[in-house]
Design a protein that fits this description.
- The complex is a heterodimer of chains A (about 375) and B (about 290).
- By secondary structure, chain A is mainly alpha-helical.
- Chain A has 15 helices and three strands.
- In chain A, about 70% of the residues lie in helices and about 5% in strands.
- Chain B has a single domain, classed as ABC transporter involved in vitamin B12 uptake, BtuC.
- Helices cover about 70% and strands about 5% of the residues of chain B.
- Classes of the chains: A mainly alpha (about 375), B mainly alpha (about 290).
Amino acid sequence: MRRLRMRSSIDNCLTYGLVIVAYVVIRLLLAGGNISYALQGQLVPITVYIVMAVSLNLTVGVLGELSLGHAGFMSIGAFSGAITATLLELLADTTSTTWIRLGFSMPWLRLSLAMLIGGIFAGIFGFLVGVPVLRLHGDYLAIVTLAFGEIIKNVMSILYVGYDANGIRVSMDSANALKLDEGGTIIVNGPMGVIGITKLSSFTAGFILILITLIIVLNLINSRAGRAIKAVRDDKIATESVGISVWRYRMMAFVISATLAGAAGALYALNYSSVVARKFDFNTSILVLVFVVLGGMGNIRGSIIAATVLTVLPEVLRAFNEYRMLTYAVILIVVMLVRNNATLQHVFRQVGARLSKSLPIRRKGGEV
Amino acid sequence: MDFLSYLISGISLGSIYAIIALGYTMVYGIARMLNFAHGDVIMVGGYMSFMATTRFGWHPLLSVIFAMIICTVLGIVIEQLAYKPLRAAPSLAVLITAIGVSYLLQNAALLLWSANPKSFSSVVPFDSLRLFNGKLIISGTTIVSIFVCVIIIMTLNTIVNKTKIGKAMRAVSEDKDAAQLMGVSVNRTISITFAIGSALAAVAGVLLCSAYPILMPTTGAMPGIKAFTAAVFGGIGSIPGAFLGGILLGIIEILGKAYISTQLSDAIVFAVLIIILIVKPTGLLGKKVLVKV
């Protein structure tokens, strides 16, 4: 047990180290002007996808349930976060109370509050969705998460939110139905999504969110609750029979995963001047799932690397121009085949063993 | 009268979903995998028929057969290259590979036919049927969709229950290893299942494009997801279930669109699915699997 704990703490240090070193290196490269403009625009999305992948890994890898609607929670976080940030800004402009004006005119405070509110809202939704979802298992659970993701996308597309002197107004009908006063602002405009967002996100904010995510997820995995979650994954009946509440730990992992996705969604929304609900569709959920599976189920460091590489890859493949998404698809298939086909793996292992005769082959499995 | 006409178009859309759902459900029942590329095979089927009629000037019926042949070959090739090497792999790995294949097909279509929507002219030669002094109009495509769906379901039911290959399919879906020991060629059975599913996808693609005549590389994606939902709705792995699920889903979608909200029709469909699965966790006609300790 002690050796196991040692190994996991070394492993965690490696993960933190990787993220911090990557951050410092990118900062240095940015200062030196070595990063192309297109890639600079990808920095915040990369941090967002890393948080998404790590949080989904909690559901898929650690809890062992396939979720196909993770983008739904991102959507909730993006909308509530962006609305929060806009409201705070309006409040800072209109209020006469000095400390509110000074406080909320600070962008970082608005950003952190937006991410917090985004996370909380997504967490609440995670719980509400989790109640019916966690009654099911396997593929049926997966299809219900997909259904919830689509429902959230649909409902968000007809949501109208405005703000005027009388407070916040919400409608599901049209922008006119909000009946705003003259100086009122439309914050969410139906299919056009959240509009008029002040860009608050930065690479550093993304980096900090990744660190917070890692602290939460890695500490959870190595805690008593984390071991309970893994036990639920490995054998529900056995876990239940030793007195661990399956429902409670499944729900815990699901809600934490949703909360983190919400915070990531808020960070994502505040990186653009407007954000639409269509962005957070089934394809986005799948994209994040691809990061998790390619990075390795339950392997947090793998998720981080896969999210980074696969977000940068289409940019790098720009040289192939119109063939880039085709190439991306082929790379995805080939990687999956190479990683999972026994014959191919045997060949690779033999080549690997010949190259490094002294190193014993490390067996996979049995640890997270 | 309005209600009747919505109901009929719901059944027609549902028939198309049912045909697609059959492909999902058969592959799931036998190979235990969610073939996410199935929706894109539909799209390929639509494009093949479109090419055959517009570029080669073939007869519509011939174009359907052409689309079926191409899609069958495509299905077998995909199965051999991408899925067969992963027979022993965890199901999530196969799922991601299927998603890769889906991306591949969509982007290949994008390169071949560009993102511009093509307007597909219906392959159905019949005129609309007018009943009750023209108060109820049923289009030819609607009738043909329902008719084709019924024929396909009956044929498949016969194949699965009466023929030798059907027996092999049932055996493989029951227990792969035991079937192998009894001399059933598991690989060949799975390949045949894929071939049948892909041929059905081609038919569904042509019918779908005849009913909703816009053809794009992403045409198959949403019907694919909905048909998958239909398959789960009826109990995945069950052929009558796919039929029932597809028809119900189509009716709910069209009635929801007509009476509740156009924008929320998808949300209504998925909400009904969630309710059904909460009440009956393995779908309408799904078998309840007992877990033994």
